[in-house]
Each structure stands twice: as structure tokens, then as C-alpha cells.
Amino acid sequence: MIRGIRGATTITGDHLEELLIETEKLVLEMVRVNHVDPDEVASVIISTTTDICSGFPAKAVRSIEGWKYVPVMCTHEMVVSGSLPHCIRVLMHVNTSVSQEHIHHIYLNEAIGLRPDLSS
């Protein structure tokens, strides 16, 4: 069974170093809390709000030990009036026997308010 694990975080501005640090922090927390091994990951989709264009957050994921061959793709989010700025969202597709209700979705920084019903 493939399950989706959601995560989101924010950065203070469009700064490459912060983008990479916060993306890595988010992904590491998602895998830590959900006990995910990189070999169990089918793919990762990362989206950013359109105010982030300093770099590819996928670079942060590929730099994590054991993640070199995990397929990662980046895209921009829809532009929606009033949406949270400087936001990075991750959807990780994981091969697991864990039920949907036991998946822990991770929201960090200002993204905590996006889905309080799913935050661990």
C-alpha cells in the first residue's frame, strides 16, 4: 500500500540557504515521526508558493544520506489570495502497512496553522 505523508513549513524570505535548511528539517521530521526508511519512499513532490524562486528544495532532500535515488519533483503552488507566504509543502508517497489514521503529518513554523486537524 502506498500512503501519502503531508508536511509543510515556511521560511522568512526567499533565501536559498534557509530554503534548503528548512526543507531538510521538515523531511527529516516527517521520516523520523513516521519511521520511514528511504527505500520505502516511492516519490516526493515538493511545492512552494510562487514567492520562492531562489532554488530547488529537492536539492535538500537529495543531500540527505540514503536519499540520492529517491525521485523528487518540485513545482509551484496555485496562487490564492490571502494564502500563507513563503510556504514549502511536501507530499511523500511511502510504501507502508500503516493505516491512514496512523500517519503523522508534520507542520512546522508558520505552517502549523494550515491543518491543525492533521498536526501531530
Overview of the molecule:
The chain has 120 residues and is an alpha/beta fold. It has a single domain (2-113), classed as RutC-like (60s Ribosomal Protein L30, Chain: A), CATH 3.30.1330. It has two helices and five strands. It has helices spanning 16-34, 58-62, and strands spanning 2-10, 41-48, 72-76, 87-95, 106-107. It has a five-stranded mixed β-sheet with strand order 3-2-4-1-5. It is globular, with a radius of gyration of 13 Å. The two termini are 22 Å apart. The mean pLDDT is 95.
Can you tag this structure with a few keywords?
120 residues, 60s Ribosomal Protein L30, Chain: A, 5 strands, 20% helix, 28% strand, chorismate mutase, five-stranded mixed beta sheet, EC 5.4.99.5, RutC-like_sf, isomerase, globular, amino-acid biosynthesis
